[in-house]
Write a structure and sequence with these properties.
The complex is a heterodimer of chains A (113) and B (115). With 113 residues, chain A is mainly β. Chain A has no helices and eleven strands. Chain A is 0% helix and 58% strand. Chain B is globular and about 45 Å long. Chain B has 115 residues and is an all-beta fold.
Chain lengths: 113, 115
């Protein structure tokens, strides 16, 4: 059974710092991996999606990498800002009888001004 | 273009009451999903609809039923609510088909409390 883990559960950094969020999955047979942002009391906003054949995707200050063989993805945030404070979730898409997304429990990020 | 919309945003039910959560998307997506989010548990898939007219159980389907009314709408029904169903419910949709990215788009959620 696929399990998705995000460590650490919470992180506080000073404004301007570059940071890396981690996502680990136990089974490398995935179709894609998606990173989301969730603000308190809100829904999930898609940040980046990496197909299984890709190694990385970039959007502005965000860069996501994927290493299927080691079961890892990282989300790199450059020059962090207080507005980046949110919970970041990763999800892998795989086939388990039907196509499913398996979510991690998230990393709660706080960027201090 | 509203994306994925959900109603209601908040709901309080008594044990044993029933209700239907509504979801609609205007992105012409084939696939739609219902998740619940609980503290420390992440998002768990309740039901899934690959296309209009089809539905499949997810990880935690017990106590729920769904209807894919048409391509736009996918509803979730609680027939007899239990306190264990207190949660935040999210609807999502995605494209489907060979070569497509299957990126998921989420609604704002429904906060349900069962007393």
């Amino acid at each position: 059974k696929q399990e998705v883990t995000q460590i650490p559960a919470a992180l506080s950094v000073p404004e301007g710092e570059n940071l890396v969020l981690n996502c680990s999955f136990t089974d490398s047979a995935i179709y894609n991996l998606q990173w989301f942002r969730q603000d308190p009391g809100k829904g999930l906003t898609s940040l980046l999606l990496i197909q299984s054949s890709q190694r990385e995707q970039t959007s502005g200050r965000l860069n996501a990498s994927l290493d299927k063989s080691s079961g890892r993805s990282t989300l790199y945030i450059a020059a962090s800002q207080p507005g980046d404070s949110a919970t970041y979730l990763c999800a892998v898409r795989r086939f388990e009888g039907t196509y499913k997304y398996i979510f991690g429990t998230g990393t709660r990020l706080k960027v201090l001004a | 273009n509203a994306g994925v919309t959900q109603t209601p945003k908040f709901q309080v039910l008594k044990t044993g009451q029933s209700m239907t959560l509504q979801c609609a998307q205007d992105m012409n997506h084939n696939s739609m999903y219902w998740y619940r989010q609980d503290p420390g548990m992440g998002l768990r898939l309740i039901y899934y609809s690959a296309s209009e007219g089809t539905t499949d159980k997810g990880e935690v389907p017990n106590g729920y039923n769904v209807s894919r009314l048409n391509k736009r709408e996918f509803s979730l029904r609680l027939e007899s609510a239990a306190p264990s169903q207190t949660s935040v419910y999210f609807c999502a949709s995605s494209e489907s088909g060979q070569g497509l990215p299957y990126e998921q788009y989420f609604g704002p959620g429904t906060r349900l409390t069962v007393t």
